[in-house]
Design goal:
Number of strands: 11
CATH class of the largest domain: Alpha Beta
CATH superfamily of the largest domain: Response regulator
Helix content: 40-55%
Bound molecules: calcium ion
Length: 233
Amino acid sequence: MQRKIRLLIVEDEEAIRTGLMDVLVYHGYEVACAADGPVGLDMAMSGQFDLVLLDVMLPGMDGFEICNRIRAEDRDQPVIMLTAKSTDEDIIQGLSLGADDYVAKPFSVAQLVLRVQAVLRRSRVGAEQDATLRLGEDVEVDCRNLQGHRGGEALSFTRREVDMLQYLRLNSDRPVSRDELLAKVWGYAKNLDIETRTVDIHIAKLRRKIEPDPAKPLYLVTVRGAGYRLMVE
Ligand code: CA
């Protein structure tokens, strides 16, 4: 059982704060809140949060200052700025102080959740989580030791197979073409005349391992005319 990912919301507007909290809790995160700058800074500096969502205009101390101080203490602490003023200047200032990303208000909740997921994926918590790939209810792949299981059945993978799965997972919002897999996983230049059948053979081998019925893939699906897509939650 993995521990829950902990997020901190520093936001003085109650409606936004509680709205964000509800959504993020719904998505499985553990969430704490601060309503002003100094409290937000203290909590952020405690080092117990995997990601800080930081409003810019805050009573007591603004978000840029908080971000600056967090960075001085912990270079790797992921921070997303929530900026009401979506002028380029604000955004550039936020990013130059080391925020990992920014979201301009008013933002859609779906967009914010995607940004949170993306920043976490690039962070140390992402590195920990990425070590394990889960598909559906019963497939688990440990990407570090190339072992896994489907239900009670033990599986072993080649490094190339795991690299493919990880690349597909990283791009699971879209199908990935054979050419792209050859370029990114094999490192072949696109104009080399390498048979794309190499990719298909590896896909077939992977399906025999992870799919309940390799003829009717649930996880590693073919998107006609586009390539392959990994169906992760
Ligand atoms: Ca504010």
